[in-house]
């Protein structure tokens, strides 16, 4: 083939390529990525009646957390990251959530990574700084490693998820789960494995707005001593109502943790870990939560609104000789522009965070162990 004809032949082959570039580039240039960076800096004051040093010094005032949030999107791809910087005594630095998502359309979405477990009332059953007892059983505001499908259309919401394991925090194999984590997961010699979740909710009403929902969780509990996998299950039924400034949340949760532990171990309890430490919890229980709040718009001076609330929860242990755990928090939250504060009066019985019994509070507990904590948490959110 003559050289001139060969050059024309190559040009003819390249023409479709250049034509495609001229079409694609203008379109791509119009679809700019979106990036939003936010976070919070929070401080905490508490007065705990069971601590002599707290009583003698009039409470304790300390740094709580610095939080960094990154949200990005490009075309149909989303990214979300929530990273926390706690004091070393509370677990230090940890990833609370981090996932990549794909939006098929307005009704169908997919998330992969460390994503929130779809279970019960979302995001929380309560209104206060302490959460309700579901959180301390690892069944609220939890995120695990897996894939989640979300569907929403008209009055219906459906979430389907598979989680291969909890957040391992870089520790795998036969190593015990690190306690440097935000949400409570099963730890010690057991590990969560191959968990499936289904959550379905229905919304109805106009003047009175209602939400009815049910959630199911099933998965394995792998024991590193016996090399066998036990079974973990939980279900929840919830109801949420909104009427003008009132909000009511109610939920019943039932869980069963059947670990295949080594001979001689107490199978009535399972270890949970978060915030740099661990405790034991009853392997079978029902959790009852009722939360009522009333919001008051102010919009004067520095105060935007006040939310008054009372959150009650009971951990009813279904094991002979085990004493139930209770929590009641009465308080209010204050919204002041970018500043947000919780003021709580928390009463607890057999509660690890509200009393002088830590390791056994959510396990066997004691017969009479009531304690009080007055708490103020304030943060600047950006």
Any descriptors?
Porin, 16-stranded antiparallel β-barrel, disordered N terminus
The tally of beta strands, per DSSP, is 19
Uncertain runs are: 1-30
Any idea what the shape is? globular
**Largest sheet: number of strands, sense, barrel closure:** 16 strands, antiparallel, barrel
**What is the CATH-assigned architecture?**
Beta Barrel
Number of domains: 1
Radius of gyration: 25 Å
What proportion strand?
Answer: over 45%
Give the assembly state of these chains. Answer: single chain
- What's the CATH class label? Mainly Beta
Walk me through this protein's architecture.
It is a single chain. The chain is mainly beta. The chain has one domain: Porin (Beta Barrel), CATH 2.40.160. It is 10% helix and 58% strand. The chain has 3 helices and 19 strands. Strands 1-2-3-4-5-6-7-9-10-11-12-15-16-17-18-19 form a 16-stranded antiparallel β-barrel. It has a 3-stranded antiparallel β-sheet with strand order 8-13-14, with no helix packed on it. A hairpin with a 2-residue loop joins β15 and β16. The longest helix is centred in the N-terminal third of the chain and has 28 residues. It starts with a helix and ends with a strand.
Describe what is shown at a glance.
By secondary structure, the protein is mainly beta. Helix content is 10%, strand content 58%.
Secondary structure layout:
Blueprint: H1 3-30, E1 34-48, H2 52-57, E2 60-74, E3 77-85, E4 93-103, E5 108-116, H3 133-136, E6 143-153, E7 156-166, E8 185-186, E9 190-204, E10 208-223, E11 228-243, E12 246-258, E13 269-274, E14 277-282, E15 284-300, E16 303-317, E17 325-336, E18 339-349, E19 370-381
Antiparallel strand pairs: 1-2, 1-19, 2-3, 3-4, 4-5, 5-6, 6-7, 7-9, 8-13, 9-10, 10-11, 11-12, 12-15, 13-14, 15-16, 16-17, 17-18, 18-19
